[in-house]
């Protein structure tokens, strides 16, 4: 992010202080949402970990996605060693476990996954693992009232695109590790406070930068409907060619309706995603061209997978920063 004016920096420091105070007053951020049930967990509340770690360090952790792994690395620090099943460019909606993945899960001391049906084809395997070892769905920590649903009532699992929601989900990692490894509970709580304070700043920066796009151009059209939380949090109208799962098909009528929408609103850019094939986006651009309206690909966004490990976009904060910069650059 670029150097910020003094007033903005002060405001962010105040925000960070408020986050830390709030965490302290709320017992380190444990949600007080009314519990509901989804996937066998108490939704909005800490998931109980019956086992206590008695092995050598670091704790062997397996995570499904890069976004979840980022939480665990930041909160677990030196006490954990993290393996991620799904790397850059991998679509979790369609992902099927390989024999090597099953072996990794069997060897793990504790497993973290996103939940809310993101890992659709892995659900049965994760449920079996939960009967044998601590297995935590971090997104199911979020207050149920904040979870969006599609027209069929299915939960939208892409909660990480509202940074404040993902910060709340990090509380599930903190509490699970602290309960599983009470010897280092204070370390996990301190690391979580630092991480959540960083995410509070990121949330504010995203709001400020996206607000610079002219109101009429704040329309985000992508390959699949992964950005509703993003639009809700940062003031963009969001349209996806496919539904919230890439397992769904994009109907011809829906594509034609999107073409008409882009032409009527004079939207100049649409976006491809690193983990989704772009043929539907190309069809959209061709449809607009047939109506004498030029639409360009505004850039590539990270949606269901982060960038390559070791790159800025291979971290959650870097991924969000890349997406914000790309969207602002194309639509402003």
Short description:
With 332 residues, the protein is α/β, with parallel strands linked by helices. Helix content is 42%, strand content 14%. Strand 5, helix 4 and strand 6 form a beta-alpha-beta unit.
Description:
It is built from ten helices and ten strands. With 332 residues, the chain is an alpha/beta fold. The longest helix is centred in the middle third of the chain and has 26 residues, at 185-210. Helix 4 links the parallel strand 5 and strand 6. It folds into two domains: 6-208, 3-Layer(aba) Sandwich (Rossmann fold); 210-331, Rossmann fold (3-Layer(aba) Sandwich), CATH 3.40.50. The chain is elongated, with a radius of gyration of 20 Å.
- The CATH level-2 architecture of the largest domain is identified as 3-Layer(aba) Sandwich
Structural classification: alpha/beta
- Based on CA atoms alone, the radius of gyration comes out at 20 Å
CATH class of the largest domain: Alpha Beta
The tally of beta strands, per DSSP, is 10
Q: Detail the poorly predicted runs.
A: 1-7, 18-40
Q: How many structural domains does the protein architecture include?
A: 2
Summarize the SSE layout with pairings.
Blueprint lengths: L5 H20 L10 E3 L2 E3 L15 E5 L2 H11 L3 E5 L14 H9 L2 E4 L9 H8 L4 E3 L25 H18 L4 H26 L8 E6 L3 H7 L2 E6 L9 H14 L3 E5 L5 H12 L5 E6 L14 H16 L1
Helix pairs in contact: 1-6, 2-5, 2-6, 5-6, 6-10, 8-9
Task: List its traits.
2 domains, 332 residues, Rossmann fold, disordered N terminus, two-stranded antiparallel sheet, 10 helices
């Amino acid at each position: 992010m670029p150097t910020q004016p003094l007033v903005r920096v002060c405001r962010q420091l105040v925000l960070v202080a408020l986050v830390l105070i709030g965490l302290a007053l709320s017992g380190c951020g444990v949600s007080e949402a009314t519990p509901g049930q989804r996937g066998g967990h108490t939704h909005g509340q800490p998931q109980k970990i019956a086992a206590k770690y008695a092995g050598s360090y670091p704790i062997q952790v397996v995570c499904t996605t890069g976004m979840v792994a980022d939480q665990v690395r930041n909160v677990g620090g030196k006490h954990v060693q993290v393996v991620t099943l799904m790397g850059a460019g991998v679509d979790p909606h369609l992902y099927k476990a390989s024999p090597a993945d099953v072996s990794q899960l069997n060897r793990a001391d504790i497993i973290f996954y996103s939940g809310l049906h993101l890992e659709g084809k892995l659900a049965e395997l994760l449920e079996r693992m939960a009967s044998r070892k601590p297995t935590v769905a971090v997104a199911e920590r979020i207050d149920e009232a904040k979870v969006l649903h599609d027209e069929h009532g299915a939960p939208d699992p892409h909660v990480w695109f509202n940074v404040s929601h993902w910060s709340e989900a990090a509380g599930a990692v903190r509490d699970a590790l602290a309960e599983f490894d009470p010897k280092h509970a204070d370390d996990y709580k301190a690391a979580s406070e630092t991480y959540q304070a960083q995410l509070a700043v990121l949330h504010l920066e995203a709001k400020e930068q996206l607000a610079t796009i002219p109101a009429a151009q704040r329309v985000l059209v992508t390959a699949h409907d992964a950005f509703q939380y993003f639009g809700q949090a940062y003031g963009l109208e969001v349209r996806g060619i496919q539904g919230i799962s890439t397992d769904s098909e994009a109907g011809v009528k829906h594509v034609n309706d999107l073409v008409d929408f882009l032409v009527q609103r004079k939207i100049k850019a649409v976006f491809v995603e690193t983990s989704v094939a772009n043929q539907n986006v190309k069809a959209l651009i061709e449809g607009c061209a047939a109506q004498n309206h030029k639409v360009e690909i505004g850039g590539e966004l990270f949606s269901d997978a982060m960038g390559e490990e070791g790159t800025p976009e291979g971290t959650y904060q870097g991924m969000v920063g890349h997406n914000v910069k790309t969207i602002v650059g194309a639509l402003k």
